[in-house]
Amino acid sequence: MKIHEVAITRTAVIPGTPEQVFAFIAAEDVLPKVLTGYGPLPAVVRTSEHTGAWDVPGSARLIHLADGSTVREQVTDYSPPARFAYRVWAFGNPIVGALATQARGEWTFAADAAGTKVTWTYAFTARNAAAALPLSGITHLLWRGYMDVCLDNAQRLMATSRNPTWVR
């Protein structure tokens, strides 16, 4: 059986050191601050059902979205200040659930003259070959914007913080 993956990568330079930016992006409470929605894609409103500390691979949680749907998320790598990765599954949105079985997210952080260069890759696994085409359209038309809003929010929040408290 062939796996059909639809991936997209976005980059941004975010003010702060890699340690500060990593700590902000990988924080347990960051999602409602940065995933504020885009077009028909809903904002994250909260998380629940945490199975462990968010800085421990294997820990999982339930993400609640503004449209009432949920999705499960699990940390797969937590390597400060260079890499943070996770997987997402059990999409409560019926359209996404019909098209994808899961997704993987990966953030990498590297020092840059203007702050930290952040690279975010998100890869959906299509249910089958027929689902890959519409999933690709949604990913490149809508999910790209969702990712860009998240990165813009992170840039704004880090830039307005004179003394970032995100560092653990």
Protein described:
The chain has 168 residues and is α+β, with helices and mostly antiparallel strands. The chain has one domain: Alpha-D-Glucose-1,6-Bisphosphate, Chain A, domain 4 (2-Layer Sandwich). Strands 1-7-6-5-4-3-2 form a seven-stranded antiparallel sheet. The termini are far apart. The C terminus is likely disordered.
Using brief descriptors, characterize the structure shown.
7-stranded antiparallel β-sheet; disordered C terminus; globular; 30% helix; Alpha-D-Glucose-1,6-Bisphosphate, Chain A, domain 4; 168 residues
Structure in a nutshell:
The protein has 168 residues and is an alpha+beta fold. It has four helices and seven strands, in the order βααββββαββα.
What's the architecture in CATH terms?
2-Layer Sandwich
Integer-rounded radius of gyration = 16 Å
Q: How are the strands ordered across the major sheet?
A: 1-7-6-5-4-3-2
Low-confidence stretches: 163-168
**What is the helical fraction, as a range of percent?**
25-40%
- Average pLDDT, all residues: 94
* Main sheet overview: 7 strands, antiparallel
N- and C-termini, Cα separation: 43 Å
What is the CATH H-level superfamily?
A: START domain
| Tally of helical runs | 4
State the shape. globular
CATH fold group? Alpha-D-Glucose-1,6-Bisphosphate, Chain A, domain 4
What is the fold's blueprint, element by element?
Blueprint: E1 4-14, H1 18-25, H2 31-34, E2 44-48, E3 60-65, E4 70-79, E5 83-89, H3 94-99, E6 100-112, E7 115-126, H4 129-160
Antiparallel strand pairs: 1-7, 2-3, 3-4, 4-5, 5-6, 6-7
